[in-house]
Amino acid sequence: MFWTAVYIVVLAAFTGYVVISRVPVILHTPLMSGSNFIHGIVLIGAMVALGLATTTAEQIIGFIAVILGAANVTGGYVITERILQMFDPGKKRPGKED
Amino acid sequence: MVDLSFLIDPVYIATIIIFIVGLQRMSHPLTARSGIIWAGAAMLIATLVTFLTPDLTNFALIAIAIVIGGGLGYIAAKRVAMTDMPQMVAIYNGMGGGAAAGIAAVHLLGTTTTVTSSLAVIGGLIGAVSFSGSMIAFLKLQGWMRPRPITFPAQQVINMAVLILAVISGVLVLLQPSWIPISYTALLSLFFLLSLGFGVLMTLPIGGADMPVVISMFNAFTGLAVGLDGFSFATPNYAMVVAGIIVGAAGTLLTIMMARAMNRSITNILFGAFGATEETGTEIHGSMKPVDADDVAIMLAYANQAIIVPGYGMAVAQAQQKVKELADLLESKNIPVKFAIHPVAGRMPGHMNVLLAEAGISYDQLFDRDEINPEFPDTDVVLVIGANDVVNPAAHRQGSPLYGMPILDVEKAKNVIVLKRGQGKGFAGIENDLFYRDNTRMLYGDAKETIGTVVQALKKL
């Protein structure tokens, strides 16, 4: 179990490193925003935590966690989408060859 | 009801793969937009399939919470202006960190000590720091809090003490020794309060200009917290683990790249209280010389080429459309126009590229620092629109807090026109002697209006 966890963490960290390396500066902001959206996956954990909660205290904290996680997901998505809209290759400018 | 929980793992694995592909697509300008759409679809399916988790109850509460959080997050993100994007990234990142801390808290309230609890403690600590730190970053960027570094005596010692106390209380949460005079719940609350406190304290001394790097760091923190939390469930949630760790690693790398673009080390940003102290012993000679729009129009009309240096002021004034109009007008008069983009102009790397792209300015007119710096000495007119620290020659002077930061060498141009609202300092709070140079003229006012006036004057020529 312990070593399985280590394998997963090491490979995931390596993946994150490889995906991001050699990114042009102009994409730093969208990528930061995009990865901000990706960790919105915390929502599914918050859902399980609330779904399995038994005491009132657990339910209250779980409820807040789901709210925060859901806001992370939708907000992170919309912000990234809005930033990346500017990079849409379909939006050609008049008189210029891209 | 049919048990469909066998769907969970395959869907989670698919989600992870699509996240990775999405991030990869987001790393190239042409495919970037499709990347986020893919990732969004994967997130939606992962959320839906989570409802199939065995033994799940409180369905109504979960649904209500998703509607409230998701709805507020969606509306706020839709309404906010493009200029406010950096602080929105900060606030949503903080919420992710808060959710991670919440999951850790639920876990620690519910179960007795196991190996997974220690991961929940670490995840809770990092998540709580990311939450409160991101909120301070948000307040500073939003201007609801003084953006200048906030310092007090023995700050580093106090910060370190709070962190150590947070770690100690975390260890006590795990060990639950009998000699502890307070209840377990009180101890757990103390642990989270200390963690939140450390997040606030470590962000206070960081100046507004460094916030992008710090937000990126907290982004990596949240990812790491989410990844560790994934292990805290009875059945580990590997979707959380993998996605969280990927963001943790990618975010760390991104933070290092951003810091490198500013020629600063992470430790200097975190502990340097950059811009808190005024440099002493240097005197600025000369005075700021104002100019009016008509004169600027004439200078531009007879220039061999014009370079425009945009900064945060352009974003605030929403002047990018007017800038585009001016650039088009000059090009129609056969005066080449180039845009000099400093990697950290604005409040985030790439901030200016996004705004200029929004206004419809072509990428081939945008030049980065190394490309454009050799051109300044041969350029007749440079228009600095609301940029300050990135053109401050103090960066070349030893002893200045800006020393070593690569800047745009606009002071070498024949004429520099600085468009500025008033006589204030830049975000780093450092006096800019460029404004006092003999070849510099100041055009005061709201950038959108002043550029409009210049355009009108140019048309009459």
What does this entry look like structurally?
The complex is a heterodimer of chains A (98) and B (461). Chain A is an all-alpha fold. Chain A is 71% helix and 0% strand. Chain A is built from four helices and no strands. In chain A, helix 2 packs antiparallel against helix 4 and helix 3 runs antiparallel to helix 4. Chain A is flat. The C terminus of chain A is likely disordered. A six-stranded parallel β-sheet of chain B has the order 3-2-1-4-5-6. Chain B folds into three domains: 79 residues; 185 residues, no CATH class; 168 residues, Rossmann fold, CATH 3.40.50.1220. The radius of gyration of chain B is 26 Å and the shape is elongated. Chain B starts with 7 loop residues before the first helix and ends with a helix. Chain B contains 16 helices and six strands. Chain B is α/β, with parallel strands linked by helices.
Task: Count all strands of chain B and give the number.
Answer: 6
- Beta-strand residue percentage of chain B: 5-15%
Shape of chain A: flat
Give the rounded overall mean pLDDT of chain B: 88
| Sheet with the most strands: spatial strand order of chain B | 3-2-1-4-5-6
Mean pLDDT of chain A: 85
Instruction: Tell me the fraction of residues in β-strands of chain A, as a range.
Output: under 5%
Q: Report the order of strands and helices of chain A.
A: HHHH
- Overall 3D geometry of chain B? elongated
Q: What is the compact description of this entry?
A:
Chain A is built from 4 helices and no strands. Chain A has 98 residues and is an all-alpha fold. In chain A, helix 2 (28-38) runs antiparallel to helix 4 and helix 3 (42-51) packs antiparallel against helix 4 (56-85).
